[in-house]
Amino acid sequence: MKMDGQQSTHGESYAYTSPYWAEFYDMWVEDIVGPTALAKDDDFFFGLLSPFLSNNVSIKSPVRGVDMATGTGRVIRGILRKMESLAQEVTSSDQQSKIEIWGIDHSQAMIDHAKGLLEGKLQPSTTLAWRNTTAANFVDENPELENAVDLIIFAAGSIGHLTADGERKRFLQQVVKALRDTDHSQAHRSVAAISILKDENNLEEKHTDQAIPEDKDRSTEMRKSSRRWPHLEYHMSQITHSKYEGRSVDSFNLTVVKAATGKIVSREMHSWSLKLFDFDEWEKELGDCGLSISQQIETSSELASEVWYILHLADE
Ligand SMILES: C[S@@+](CC[C@H](N)C(=O)[O-])C[C@H]1O[C@@H](n2cnc3c(N)ncnc32)[C@H](O)[C@@H]1O
Asked: For a FRET experiment, which of 4, 117, 219, 230 has its CA 20 to 30 Å from that of 90?
């Protein structure tokens, strides 16, 4: 049975199903945290993958990574940018490990947008696969991932989007199915790197709390021109928050207008929810599912302060 808290709670008003929001999302993030912030984690993401690349050259099966809840593909773009900058140091592409990265998201609109941003950015050693699948079912719906994944990345605290009762645990059980059950004495055991937002200082809070600079001519709305549809312009209202049963719900209006005439093309109320984080419950779920914490890493950028849990399959 499929389990998806966002789709069952928000239905058609769920923001991430909208192609307009899919384009506007990065503009919104950049407006809050600055144009370079989206690339700040490139080294970190590549550093998660790189241990699997050395010594893999002679092995036929590619290094396989999953970017869970890929959104606009920020993590994959970061890895590819880093690989491109390192490419000169590698003498021949024949000597490179083969890498297969899967971008998984439950929104086709986000996947389509990410794909567009990544066109022409691939290194010869890398292939991408895209799947519209919900986190709690990602291996059941893609059985080729069973015992076949070296690295799973779940960034930007997006695990908080798994809001239905039992949904996060179902996802962790899928992680256990996916991770390659390698010889535990090997240097590089397969890992899942899952980020938790460190405090309430997440994007939505930042946006609501920040003072809007006077030189940005908007009193309560953020306005941006579409690049995909150059004749259109987005107007996003401020986000309103509400809380219920350990979840926060964020809502806003996204209006799309014709730039030349101001005529409204679409006006939708969008929302999503986030599950408030309980560390004791989280650590219990990890243990129940058979995952061990090998490391906790704190990262901090304009985008978010995150605690990364580096998880591997628990020893029998
Ligand atoms: C904050 S955004 C993108 C995060 C992206 N990984 C990054 O680091 O920029 C969250 C994404 O999670 C996706 N998402 C939320 N719940 C999901 C679920 N249950 N299964 C798969 N994707 C989900 C949304 O569609 C959205 O694209």
From this structure: 117
By residue range, what is the domain housing residue 130? 5-201+277-313
Output the ligand 1 site: residues, CB below 6 A. 4, 6, 16, 69-71, 74-75, 105-107, 110, 134-135, 155-156, 158, 161-162
Q: What is the Cα 176 distance to its own chain's centre?
A: 19
Query: Do 68 and 103 touch, CB atoms closer than 8 A?
Result: no
Instruction: Give, for 31, the enclosing helix (H) or strand (E).
Output: helix 19-33
Whether 163 has a pLDDT exceeding 80, the answer reads: yes
CA of 239 to the centre of ligand 1 (A): 18
How would residue 203 be classed by pLDDT, with cut points 50, 70 and 90? very low
148 and 79, same domain (yes or no): yes
To test the ligand 1 pocket, which listed residue (3, 16, 48, 152) has its Cβ within 8 A of the most ligand atoms?
16
Per-residue confidence (pLDDT) for residue 207, from 0 to 100: 47
The pLDDT of 78-90, averaged and rounded, is 81
Domain CATH number, residue 168: 3.40.50.150
